[in-house]
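Q: For a teaching handout, I want to show students what a protein-ligand complex looks like in token form. Below are the inputs, and the small molecule is NAI. Please produce the holo structure.
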Amino acid sequence: MPDKVAYAVHDMIAVLRIQNPPVNALSQAVRQGLSDAMDRAEADDAVHAVVIVGDGRAFIAGADITEFGKPPMEPNLPDLCTRIEQSPLLVVASMHGVSLGGGLEVALGCHYRVAQPSARVGLPEVHLGILPGAGGTQRLPRVAGAANAVDAITTGRHIKADEAQKMGIIDRIEEGDPQEVGIAYAMDLLSENAPRRPVSEMPAPEGIDWDAKYDAVLKKGRGQISPATAVRAVQAASELPFDEGMKRERELFMELMDTDQRKGLIHAFFNERAVSNLPELKGVEPRHLQSVGIIGGGTMGAGIATAALLAGLEVVLIETGEEQATAARGRIEGNLQGALKRGKISQQKFDALITVALTVSVKYDSLKDVDLAIEAVFEDMAVKHEVFAKLDATCKPGCVLATNTSYLDVNEIAAATSRPEDVIGLHFFSPAHVMKLLEVVVADKTAPDVVATGFALGKMLGKVSVRAGVCDGFIGNRILAVYRTAADHMVLDGASPYQIDRALTNFGFAMGPFAVADLAGLDIGWATRKRKAPHRHPEERVPTYIDKLCEQGHFGQKTGEGYYVYTEGQRGGKPNPKIAELIAAEQRERGISPREFSDEEIVHRYMCAMVNEAAKVVGEGIARRPLDVDMTLLFGYGFPRYWGGPMKWADIQGLPKVLAAIEGYAEEDAWFWQPAPLLQKLVDEGRSFDDLNKAER
Ligand code: CAA
Ligand code: NAI
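A: Here is the structure, written as tokens, with NAI included.
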């Protein structure tokens, strides 16, 4: 194995160059390499200073996350940072690209820090469920002050070089080759006789109202505990001597290392990346992608057009008539105005996007040169067939023909063309220029390079793309339908929609299911219930109380009344008193005696319904791996990231416990709670969902 840390001496300066691609994570070999190289520099009388620099695209992106949860290996990172700091030689960090987590902690262990103007630093550990564990919570407040340190550590944000310099984290900003810049800075410091400057010896930071800060951060974390715990670690920097503070940091770090949230967040970190890495696409080249046609400029079409324009693609949008075309253009311009207001694009860019990059037309002929066409017209098979027949007749050979349908059969849509191998589902989520999820729906005849093009588009748009097979609702909406039903059943049996929403937001969901229903529009569920009524299984329990509200013209937020009542200008709504009356009436009609539900039971039933359907989705091959379901729920459905996704949640509970609960619920309603064969199989074999993820890698 080549050395992870190269050692060279230039005049009086030893250069320690970290070489651990792609991002110089601090694996055991890197830590050992740095420690050995420090020994070597100190043993060389000719050396007066040390420069630490990273090879490739970053200084150091942090601890090696793949080592988490494994037995610790010497030298540990806190000791390494202290070892560097205690060196009798002057030590300089020369930073470029990112210096994150343990990377910034190594830099803070150095006596001086110089960075490229484009460099970014940060302590993002809270996003992995932990806190900076190598002195970051003790050293950062000593250079940047308590308030700045708390902000940086609890948000985990990346800080640009100029801001970092103002905060006192970076001493100098200099453009050039990082090694040359580091050597020049070290030479300057030596010529000025600058002293070694250990951060640990700097005065402790000022105090702030720690309890108030802790409470505020805890509340903001919506159940995530690492940011608030990090506040306590910074508090220790202000109140305890350095060594004591380091001990407190370690205790809190180890506490967090042991939590389920740490496991969930790290599962999310790796699988957010693994999800788009499909073994079937290895070596498959995507098709050329520069221009996109969009058919239908309603809510979804306009959102997709916005995302494509912001990603630098040319967009041709087709509508049915001039009026609709003007409305579609208005929606896109409105979305882009938002980006302009938030400083994401300049006025000049805005003008170029709407005048040059965007074409809105009522003629299909305008689509003849596009590389990929996405249909986002009404959710009606006859309309989709008509549109795909036109696309088939108009689009050039090799053009990818995509549908944004939510539920319809992509095979049937493909059959309307003479080229089903070019047809694919690209299921975006509303608002399409904001939501991160893209389901890439692969139909029976879809060609591999068309699948690769779907993933390539997702990447260009900054989406998390998940491969899904064809079924009613694909991965996400199919599972949603089932856990929503579990919530409806609990309402029939006595839990109020408001208790359910509260229990699930306390669990960590961004919104509860009934608040979501109000937001999406109650008319959607009403229409679905009517559509499905003729084919319904006699044992299926479907509440009808909410239909009565719809019959009165109340569809949720857009009409001001649904499960909640909304007052203009106010955020959120208040429980609608009519709902309790309607529920009580239905319970009387059905002869149900309502019972009490604990919040814990609500969460457990909801989660078990989700996991059971998800296991069916994986068992049937609609999702290839449990991680595909996890990422779908995380990026499209507001699932709390710190649980890692429903499959990870189930693994953490233990699959036998989840199966036993489902079997218990089945005693009341055997039709709804049919255990997934895959879940039973995994329990029989003593395996977890994550074992299946690993088997696929
Ligand atoms: N450890 C191990 N692997 C890492 C890693 C790390 N710290 N950071 C990135 N990688 C891996 C990624 O998994 C990815 O691997 P694959 O190519 O196999 O998928 C590869 O490096 C490239 O990463 P990205 O695709 O994310 O590349 P990017 O350019 O989009 O982003 C990045 C680069 C900004 C560094 C981003 O990867 C990132 O944010 N990494 C995590 C940084 C972090 O959280 N550091 C703190 C670690 S915890 C710590 O340091 C604790 C402590 O104090 C003891
Ligand atoms: P919408 O009703 O807002 O927009 C549909 C647009 O298509 C209208 O502007 C209409 O004028 C246009 N249109 C209809 N027929 C056309 C034709 N033949 N040629 C060109 N334009 C035509 O609908 P929305 O919500 O944007 O949905 C579109 C599709 O996206 C549907 O298939 C829907 O299921 C799907 N979808 C919707 C989501 C949502 O949250 N609204 C989420 C994900 C997918």
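A: Two things your students might notice: The chain is about 50% helix and 10% strand. Residues 295-301, 318-320, 324, 376-379, 383, 387, 404-406, 428-430 surround NAI (ligand 2) (CB under 6 Å).
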